[in-house]
């Protein structure tokens, strides 16, 4: 799927997304924040794309879709859906090569650090512990996949994976599943 199709997929996913928990419940606010974050990053991605910055547009789209998918996996949103960054084959122009290289390497470092700076919040006996571990596992998996793509020379694919994986951690923090044990600036809290 092209970069433009990926953005259109994101818009379609946003338009179909509904909060799955009842209004007035404690998790309703969390679900609303997940949708709000996803929508903000879709908007950012569109602005970046229109202003000729496909690198930041790709990162914003992947990050926003990560929020939606994490919220869906937690049962906060419906439909249950997945929009992994492996769907997109972003063609970043050669003129953006240095920008892509810098951002990809920086996002790799950020996600690596973020993975080390969160701790599962719920008790091991709680069902929410399993939820936290599922989100952490997804973030780890996307980090590892991003490293493989970076090592293979696919910087755009790596950037999308690092951005998507980071969103899973941020959504988990927003949902109260993780505690930040280090630099809070790496997270959207």
Descriptive overview:
- With 189 residues, the chain is mainly alpha-helical.
- Helices cover 66% and strands 5% of the residues.
- It contains 6 helices and 4 strands; from the N terminus they run H-E-H-H-E-H-E-H-H-E.
- It has helices spanning 3-16, 26-50, 54-73, 97-116, 127-151, 155-174, and strands at 18-19, 77-78, 118-120, 178-180.
- Strands 1-2 form a two-stranded antiparallel sheet. A two-stranded antiparallel ribbon has the order 3-4.
- Helix 4 packs parallel to helix 6 (155-174).
- The longest helix has 25 residues, at 26-50.
- The radius of gyration is 16 Å and the shape is globular.
Features:
189 residues; mainly alpha; two-stranded antiparallel ribbon; two-stranded antiparallel sheet; 6 helices; 4 strands; 5% strand
Percentage of residues in DSSP E strands: 5-15%
Structural class: mainly alpha
Count of separate DSSP helical elements: 6
What is the string of SSEs from the N terminus onward?
HEHHEHEHHE
Strand order of the largest sheet: 1-2
End-to-end separation in angstroms reads 32 Å
Mean pLDDT: 93
- The count of strands amounts to 4
Determine Rg (CA atoms, Å).
16 Å
Tell me the helix content.
55-70%
Q: Which of globular, elongated, flat, extended, rod-shaped describes the shape?
A: globular
Major pleated sheet: 2 strands, antiparallel
Note poorly predicted spans: none
